[in-house]
Every structure is written in C-alpha cells, then in structure tokens.
Amino acid sequence: MLNYTIRRLVLSIPTLLFIALVIFLLLELAPGDPMGQMPLTIPDDVKQRMREALGLGEPWYTRFYLWLYQFFIVEPQYWIDGIFGTNFADGAQRIISFQSRSPVFDTIAERLPQTLWVVGMSYVVGVAIALPIGIISAYKQYSVFDQAGTFVSMIGFSVPPFFSGVLVIVIFSVQLGWLPSIYDTTHQVVDWETFKFQLQQMIMPVMVLALQTTAQVSRYMRASMLDNLGQDYVRTARAKGMSESVVVMRHVLRNSMIPVVTVIALGIPSIFGGAIITEQVFKVNGLGQLLILALQGADIPMVMTITFLLAVLIVLMNLIADILYGVLDPRIRYD
Amino acid sequence: MPDGAMPVLDVRDLKTVFQTRGGEVHAVNDVSFALRPGELLGVVGESGSGKSVTMMSLLGLLPSPPADVRDGQVMFGGKDLLKVSMDELRAVRGGEIGFVFQDPMTSLNPVYTVGFQLMEPLRKHMGMNKRQAAKRAQELLELVGIPDARRRLDDYPHQFSGGMRQRVMIAIALACDPKVLIADEPTTALDVTIQAQILELMKELRDKLGMAVIWITHDLGVIAGIADRVMVMYAGQVVEHAPVKELFGNPQHPYTRALLKTIPSIAGERAARLTIIEGQPPIMGAAPSACPFRDRCDVAFERCAHENPPRYDVGHGHDTACFFDARTGAPRDA
C-alpha cells in the first residue's frame, strides 16, 4: 500500500504539470484584457505600458515558467517562513493578483474559511442525511419512505440553486423574517448569541447546497444497497441466525460503502471550488465568488492559481478514493 | 410416516406462494415429510420443482414479499417454526438447523475474514467470547479438512478455492452442532473431483456428528451414493418417497421412472441420443386441481385431468402420488 501510494504521488507530478500547462494555455487563448475595466479616458499607450508592467509583454512560456516557479518554490518558502519565522523567501516576487495587487494566496486564505464553513458544512450535512436515507430506502424498497426519498432526490437533482436559494430567501427572510438573507462574513463568533446568529445565517445556504448533495449521494447509497441486499451472502447471514440489524448494518453496509466512498471522496474538491451560484445568491464572499470576480476581471494569476489548486485536490482525492477502496475491499490489493 | 423414532423435523402440508406481476405462482403445494434423527434424506427434482423453496420456507429465508408461506406446519423441537417469533426462529437458524447453499463463490461475505464469519454464529448462539470462538472456529476448519486452519482463519473468502469455500460454508453450518443440516445443491457449482470430496466429507461428518441431513440435488447419482431415503419432487409436490434402495429398485411414479431412464449408462453400447422427458414442467398459477405431470406422462388417463392424486402408501415405507398402480399395471380404484 505504501509503495503504491508513493508511486501514485510521483506519477501525479507530471499529470499536474500537464494540467497546469493546459489551464495556462486555455487562459492564454481566452479573450479578455486585464485593462478592459479601466476607464476609457486612459490613453492606449498608457494602457499598453500598464500591461507590460503586469508582465504581459513577455512570451507565454516565460510567464508560464515564472508562474510555476512562484507557485512551487516561492509560495512554499513564504509559507514556511510564516510558520517558522525563517527567511527562505528573502523578498522574492509572489504570485500577485492583477486586480487587487495583493498576493493571490493571501486572498485565498482570507476567503477559504467562509467557503469551508458554508460549503463544507453543507457537504457534511448532506452526506450525513443521505446515507441513512439511502440505507432505509433500499431496505424498504417501494415503501412510502422510499417514494418520498425518490421525490426529494428528484427535486434536489432538478431544481437549480439559483431557484431554490431565492425561494428560501423569499420564504424565510422576506415572508417570515426568521433568517437573514445576506451572509455576514465579518461576523465573529464570541459568545452564545453570536454563535446563534452564525447558525441562523448558515442555515439557508447550507440547506440549499445540502439538498443537492443529499439527492446525489442518497441515490448512490440506495442503488449500492439494493445491489448487495440481493446477494447470496446476505441469505447466508440470515441463515446463520443474525438479526436484521447485523445483516444490514454489518454485512450489507460495508459492501455497499465501497462505491459510495469513492463518490463522496471525489465530491470533496467541489467544496473548495465553492458553490459559485449559491455564494452569489447569499452574498457569501467565498472562493466561488472570488473565482467569478477574477474571471470577469481577466485576473489571470488568480484564476490560474485557484483552478490549479482545484486540480491538485482532484488528483489527491482520486488517490485517496483509490486507497480507501483498497482498505474497504480486501479483494483489492495494490502491491 | 412409518418407523419408530420421533422425527426431528416434521413438515405437514406446507404451502408457499409467490406473488408476481403475472399473478400467483404456487411453488410448494402441500408438501409433507418427516426427518428422523441421523438420517440423510435426499430431495430430487428438476429445476423449479420447489426443492429449495420448500427448504427455505421452513426457516423463513424467502424474501417476503414476494414469497408467502401460506399454510402448513413445521414441527421442530416441539415448536411450529412457522408460528414462532422472529427471535426464536433466529435461534434455530444457524443454531439448531444449519444451511449450506449452492454457490460457494457468492455465499460468503467478501469483505470479512473467514474466521469472522465462522465466529459470528458461535458468539451469537453459543455465547462464546472471542477466544473460545476462535479456538472452536479453528477446530471446525480442521474438521472440514482445511489444512493450516489457524492461519487460514484470517484469510478472506477470495483467497480460497471453490471447494475450500464450500468446506467453509459447511463449517459455518456445523458451527453450533445443529440437529439438522440442510444442504441445498452444495456440490452443483463444483467440479466432479471436488464434488466427490465434499460428498465423502458429508458422509463422514454425518457419521461422526450424528445429525440429520436434508440433501437437495438434481443429480440422481449423488442421491444413490449418499441418501437413506429419497423424496422426488415435481411442480411443488412430493410425487414419490421411498428408502433409497426401494426407489431405485422399484420406482412407482411415472416421473421417477422417466427420471431414472434419463441417466446415461457407461456400460454397454452407447445410445445414439440421450433419453429425455418430453415437455416442460408446468408453472402452477393456482393450487393444483389435476395431476401436474399428466401432460408428460405415458400412463395418464382421464381421472388424472380431474383430480390431483394423493400420496398412496405402497408398503416398505414407500409412497407415490399416482392414480396408476405400477405393480398391477392398472389404475387404482377410485
């Protein structure tokens, strides 16, 4: 297993380099000008000099190399310096946003907590609800519970968050006035009252996002449980005199979790991508919103860095899913 | 049922119906039989004759719906297994009645070790702690002839061959010293040499442990070699029932006789074609009101189309469900 993990980690380096190149070239090909949002009164030759000041005059391979150097060498140095108080970086140039002129990683670090709180929490809530729903739906197939679960899943799949988000705002903020419609990111939890407020402002975005996660994961769970409930080993377990709870929760569940764990692990990178639309609806200034604004402003370093970080997470989660597969299923051995 | 000893398992008029989209299917129709301690009862019949469904009905192992055990009595240890609570039934399953299934490749849970699966019933029914159960599990694997038992307890099912997995299944079924072992075509999925080994093992274990065995198969050769008594099933009914020598020497029911003729012989000249029984067994959409075998029968007469024959006793512990008396070559009196 350790050999396999190391081999996979080493192999992921060329993969990631290639992904970085593709993202960079795609951004190169995309239309858009960082000066596009500057006032029209600025003369063209001044704009041209500003572009050159941003480094856009260099050929693409130079810029790509510099980005790689900054991402893999300079930024980790700053990171280590920040933790241990050393001075490896020695004032080297960091990746700077075109728009804000501040280091990209600082901005990301600023936005990450909001996204993790809202989107991450919704993922945890969604999965925690989805697993029992999937298990019960499969065990009591075609029951009222199962039908209701199917119906809710259908809604979760088919209603987009820009609709469900606005809908819950209209109901709970406008009509009933129970919950704030805007997520206040400056809010700090210091005591019970502020904690309650934090919960209140999280409820709606978490609900909207969790519905989607629940819809997806519960369907996977249900299908996987159904596959396994009909297996011969289930009959064997019953013939051994095991109680239904042991049959389902011990024998069937462990087998059913194998494919579901993969689905759950592969869904984690999307948390960090933020929920672009939901964050817009509830005014959560998380990573999704950051990415959208960067795209609109042709902020290439910001877009490039966020997208690449997502690629890293996807590659990493794929690896983790494969390793978990081997842990859960003894038939799979990697060495 | 003749003969002295109290039966360990006594089944009366068992009826199982499946609810399907196309209506009801009467899979088991008034099956009665008794199993005496220490005997090996063979149950033969072609696919779909209700052999397995009968045995699974006894222990409530059929998924319900669609299955519905509608009627009958299954007396075991002074209780009717069709009426006891789920908890009592679970104590019998795997405790006093062991079950071995057909396909050893899929009958074990792939994600747990063989030792764990073997220790589960021990801990549940015998109240053993982990150490005692592990010791007993090792003994059981040795009993069914798995070499290096101690180490193999930690192996997963996929690390065993088919024959070895079936040995594990047998060990699980034997774990709690059952009074009855029900083996549902335990050798069908195995190749012939492994099949012979498993048969030998079963005979040996029965003599050693003294339990009663119900052996379901469609292989008459296996039955001849292992059974004390044989029950022939057709369309969910018992059509003939006799001690093994009597059945092979003096078959009464036309279906049994036809079945025996289909066994290819290795002696003498090779037949141009294998003998077959023409036609298909019927799908019972309703409780039978006529003899289900009449369409494929060579001695059927008018009465067979109106009445379902009861089981006639023909002596020597032998009974048959046929209106035609093979001994006299004439129909029985109405």
Automatic annotation (TrEMBL), chain A:
Question: What is one GO biological process annotated to this record?
Answer: transmembrane transport
- InterPro entries cross-referenced by the UniProt entry: BPD_transp_1_N (IPR045621), MetI-like (IPR000515), MetI-like_sf (IPR035906)
Q: Name one Pfam family in it.
A: BPD_transp_1_N
Compartments it resides in: Cell membrane
Membrane topology reported for the UniProt record: Multi-pass membrane protein
Positions of transmembrane segments: 116-139, 151-178, 258-282, 302-328
Keyword line: Cell membrane, Membrane, Transmembrane, Transmembrane helix, Transport
Q: Which domain of life is it from?
A: Bacteria
Query: According to its record, what are the GO cellular component terms?
Result: plasma membrane
* Domain ABC transmembrane type-1 span(s) in chain numbering: 112-321
Q: Which family does it belong to?
A: Belongs to the binding-protein-dependent transport system permease family.
What is the protein name stated in its UniProt record?
Peptide/nickel transport system permease protein
Give the originating organism: Yoonia litorea
- Provide the organism lineage as a comma list: Bacteria, Pseudomonadati, Pseudomonadota, Alphaproteobacteria, Rhodobacterales
UniProtKB/TrEMBL annotation, chain B:
Question: Mind listing the GO biological process terms from this record?
Answer: peptide transport; transmembrane transport
GO MF term set: ATP binding; ATP hydrolysis activity
User: Where is it localised?
Assistant: Cell inner membrane
Where would one find the signal peptide in this protein?
none
Give the InterPro entries listed for this entry: AAA+_ATPase, ABC_Ni/Peptide_Import, ABC_transporter-like_ATP-bd, ABC_transporter-like_CS, Oligopep_ABC_C, P-loop_NTPase
Task: Name the Pfam families on file.
Answer: ABC_tran, oligo_HPY
Q: What is its main location?
A: membrane
Which segments constitute the ABC transporter domain?
Answer: 9-260
- Provide this UniProt record's keywords sorted from A to Z: ATP-binding, Cell membrane, Membrane, Nucleotide-binding, Transport
Pull one GO CC term from this UniProt entry.
Answer: plasma membrane
Write down the membrane topology: Peripheral membrane protein
Q: Which family does it belong to?
A: Belongs to the ABC transporter superfamily.
What is the protein's name according to its record? Peptide/nickel transport system ATP-binding protein/oligopeptide transport system ATP-binding protein
Instruction: Report the source organism.
Output: Yoonia litorea
